[in-house]
Amino acid sequence: MKKLLRYRMVQRLGWICVLLLVWQGAVWSGRVSPLLLPAPRQVLVTFLDRLFYGELAAQIGFSLAIILRGTGIALVVSLGIALLSLYSKVFASLADTLCALAHPLPAIALLPLIIIWFGVGYPAVTAIIVHSTLWPLFLNLTAGLRATPRVYVECGKSLCSSPLWLLGHVYLPASISSFLAGMKIGWARAWRALISAEMIFGAVASSGGVGWFLFQNRVMMDTAGLFSGIFAVALIGMLVEELLVLAEQKTVVRWGMSAPQ
Amino acid sequence: MQKLISALCVLLLLAGCAGRKEQSITVAQQYGTAYAPIAVMRELALLEQELPDSVTVKWVQLANTAAIRESMLGGETDFACMAIPPFLIGRDAGMEWQICSGVSRVPMGLTTSDPTLTSLADITPDMRIALPQPGSIQHILLAMAASRELGEARRFDDQLVTLSHPDGMNALLSGGEVSLHFTTSPYLQQEQQAGMTLLLDGEEAMGQPYTGIVAVAGQSLYHENPKVYQAFLKALEEAIRWIQENPQEAAQLLAPLYGMEPDALLQEMTAPGAAYTTEVAGVEAFERFMLEEGYLKADHSLDTLLFSEAVR
After folding, report:
1. Residues B262, B273 share a domain
2. Which range of residues forms the domain containing residue B253?
3. What residues have CB less than 8 Å from A17, skipping those under 6 apart?
4. pLDDT reported for residue B277
């Protein structure tokens, strides 16, 4: 038992089974309306049906593609800001103030402004995702860059004087652990922001994304469909996080910069 | 320590099972002059007068119909006000509720920022249409018009953008990809004043007059608590009669609630197409259309949709 508990996935699956049993028990008790809590089997059937015969698969792909684009932009911009602040004190204080102002602002609070400035299509959703991921990424990147040990920097400088070389061979590898931490937070925030944005905007393209799927099922009162949408969202969230953990194990854990989880 | 934590968890779980003890009833509505009779009921304490003192009345305002439906499903709300199509979707999904009365008729319509559009047929696939949500009365009216004029009810379903009325108006006026907005009073008039053209009127889309907002109650309340049900009906009738007889006073009373000048409010409440009446119109037509086009799964007779007291 103790041996098994070492594996995170085994633990997770175990708990999920327990929760499923509780859920099934609640349905069997017959005291809960199926409009509030549909049976697990019905949710599974609906989920598979929407995935293979409905639009769910395409909608998941759409959501992931738009997140990838938004996060990509946020990554480039935050890297740029973080590097500039590394070399310029004035820029660093500006970036710091901007971040302090914008970081606590939920994207949804900016929604009315975003609609006026960007409309309701791709640019608006991209703006929401960039806003949600940019600041946590920037914060973590600067923390990592600033924490680069002085010795490494001096050593690097004596090997080669080019700032670009220094960046690629000293600063970035040294801050990869905070970078990955930033990616984790950034991803979680982007995913949430996208789902909320889609639930408010509706379909950006003709089919829309997972958030739109959720919203459609909500307004049409299809509770089983709503549940399958929620599972899709949770499942993808979990999978991407696993990917990031894997990236951590392949890099920082292997290089001895961080302890394995 | 571990035992303590587990015990706390169990306690927390059990705490959720405790029921409501005090007798209270909750009325849910949305924002806008279409709900003026409910606001009058509240301001003049009409419902409280009809009920014994032991019963307290709570008034809640929710952002959209789906939220109202969910609160009713969770047993948090006893009476709710909404448009007919969202009510039908809930009834079709198995919610045990029926219409008890009409509340109001409000002007609705599809406006556009593109003056070259003259009919639905001119709308191209890249134009986006803002409306509150799929399954809303605006969506069904649009589908009805599309079905009649173009023979294809779902023609515009892929072009919808879900935006609340004020956000939709902003999107339309800011001139982005939203070039049409299916909305209701007062946004409808504000958009027209800002230079938008009215492409389609709500009654034109429906082909007959219809009730914009109805009051809905659960079947269990109707059967188990007839006194409360009758009290609500009486108070609503009283509120509607009071507005009909004293429109100026009603505008005075409600102006601060809506943050408007009394004159502007009076104009909106008495605009052509606006009316406060208990009569329920259009349920059958909505039901038939939504069934034919697959927005509903089963056929429901009028007797299972309206309580016998409702004025048809």
Report:
1. yes
2. 25-105+210-305
3. none
4. 94
Whether the per-residue pLDDT at B18 is higher than 60: the answer is no
Number of domains in chain B: 2
Which range of A227-241, B174-188, B202-216 scores highest in mean pLDDT? It is: B202-216
B44 and B191 part of one domain: no
Contact residues for A54 (Cβ-Cβ < 8 A; gap 6+): none
Q: Where are the domains of chain A?
A: 57-253
| Dihedral (CA of A203, A205, A206, A211) sign | negative
Which superfamily, per CATH, for A57-253? MetI-like (1.10.3720.10)
Low-confidence winner among A103-107, A140-144, B13-17, B144-148 (lowest mean pLDDT): B13-17
Q: Is B155 on the interface with A (CB under 8 A)?
A: no
Nearest Cα residue in chain B from A211: B162
Question: N- to C-terminal Cα distance for chain A?
Answer: 19
Is residue B136 in some structural domain? yes
- SS3 call for B24: strand
Given an 8 Å threshold on Cβ–Cβ distance, is B162 in contact with A222? no
DSSP letters along A209-244, please?
Answer: -HHHHHHHHHHTT-HHHHHHHHHHHHHHHHHHHHHH
Residue of B161, B174, B179 to mutate, interface with A, max A Cβ within 10 Å = B161
| Tens-digit pLDDT profile for residues B115-135 | 899 999 999 988 889 998 889
Minimal CA separation from B277 to chain A, in Å: 27
Which of A116, A201, A223 has its CB closest to that of B174? A116
Say if residues A81 and A95 touch (Cβ distance below 8 Å): yes
Q: Which of A119, A200, A219 sits opposite B178 (nearest CB)?
A: A119
Same domain, B202 and B214: no
CATH number at residue B255: 3.40.190.10
ipTM value:
0.71
A161 touches chain B (CB under 8 A): no
pLDDT of residue B11: 55
- Cβ–Cβ of B133/A219 closer than 8 Å? yes
CB contact under 8 A, A219 and B135: yes
Question: Mean pLDDT over all residues of chain A?
Answer: 85
For residue B5, is pLDDT > 80? Answer: no
Residue A51: which residues within 8 A CB-CB, separation 6 or more? A57, A232
Count contacts between A and B (CB, < 8 Å).
80
What is residue A94's predicted lDDT score, i.e. its pLDDT? 92
Which band of pLDDT confidence, cut at 50, 70 and 90, is reported for residue A55?
Answer: confident
Q: List helix spans (H) across chain A.
A: 2-5, 8-28, 40-52, 56-87, 89-102, 111-118, 122-146, 150-159, 163-166, 172-174, 176-201, 210-219, 223-248
Helix (H, G, I), strand (E, B) or coil at A260: coil
pLDDT, tens digit, for every residue of A6-42? Answer: 677 788 889 989 999 999 999 998 888 888 889 999 9
Say whether pLDDT at B20 is over 50: no
Is the same domain home to B202 and B112? yes
pLDDT of B19 above 50: no
Q: pTM (2 decimals)?
A: 0.79
Minimum distance, in Å, between the CA of residue A198 and any CA atom of chain B: 9
* Last residue within a domain, chosen from B191, B206, B221: B206
Asked whether the beta carbons of residue B167 and residue A112 sit closer than 8 angstroms, the reply is: yes
